[in-house]
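User: tokens in, sequence out, please.
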């Protein structure tokens, strides 16, 4: 008998399963929805951009579009009622994201708070809406899309990084609280993926991958029952090692690397 076991029940057979992805109009969310559809899942895609969602459903027959602003708690609650009224919900993915580079020397308070609203508060609204149903089912899966930018503080990331760090701790606490309930929890921490958000970056992004590659890494992580799904490993493993450094060593190394 192996000394380890998957953190979650493995998810590999998606045929006939219902998956709701919030933040699916582009990038990782859209690519993951497409990959799940190809695996036979019934995919419900949500985002603010209804035109993009409807275009997705035209390319993926059987998929459903549900326009939603994830920062509107009442709207999230209403959307959850619509989704769950149609039957069992097998997996819900929070992939909504907001990103602008920001330094401490030029804080835009409105935009900094927007990062927290989209990247963190929206996840709480979704959890509050769907967890009662998942608990009553006794089965299901919740997946939150964080970022390796939440591992430790980084230059020019005073708004984005803390919002993702909060999401990482939320996922960890969620997993511990839901052990033994039949509800799996996974945390997705991407490195650099070519999306409309990373297109804002003017710097070189090491190990940049395409959204379709991110989607395949996510499906592979779900199939393995992983709690944390991070990719690409050639980049993220190095960042994990940096978490072990003392502040003195970490600050010195990052300052030199980003000078």
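Assistant: Sequence out:
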């Amino acid at each position: 008998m192996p000394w380890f076991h998957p953190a979650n029940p493995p998810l590999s057979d998606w045929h006939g399963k219902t998956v709701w992805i919030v933040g699916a109009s582009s990038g990782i969310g859209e690519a993951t929805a497409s990959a799940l559809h190809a695996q036979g899942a019934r995919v419900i895609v949500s985002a603010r951009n209804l035109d993009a969602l409807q275009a997705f459903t035209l390319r993926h027959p059987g998929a459903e579009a549900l326009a939603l602003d994830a920062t509107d708690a009442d709207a999230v609650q209403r959307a959850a009622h619509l989704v769950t009224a149609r039957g069992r919900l097998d997996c819900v993915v929070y992939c909504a994201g907001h990103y602008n580079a920001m330094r401490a020397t030029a804080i835009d308070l409105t935009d900094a708070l927007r990062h927290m609203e989209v990247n963190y508060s929206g996840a709480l609204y979704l959890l509050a809406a769907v967890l009662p149903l998942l608990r009553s089912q006794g089965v299901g899966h919740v997946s939150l899309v964080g970022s390796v930018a939440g591992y430790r503080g980084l230059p020019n990331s005073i708004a984005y990084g803390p919002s993702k760090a909060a999401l990482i701790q939320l996922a960890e606490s969620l997993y511990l609280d839901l052990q033994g309930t039949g509800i799996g929890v996974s945390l997705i921490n991407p490195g650099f993926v070519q999306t409309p958000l990373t297109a804002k970056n003017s710097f070189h992004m090491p190990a940049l991958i395409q959204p379709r590659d991110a989607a395949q890494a996510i499906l592979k992580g779900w199939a393995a029952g992983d709690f944390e799904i991070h990719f690409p490993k050639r980049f993220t493993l190095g960042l994990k090692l940096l978490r072990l450094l003392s502040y003195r060593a970490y600050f010195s190394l990052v300052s030199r690397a980003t000078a």
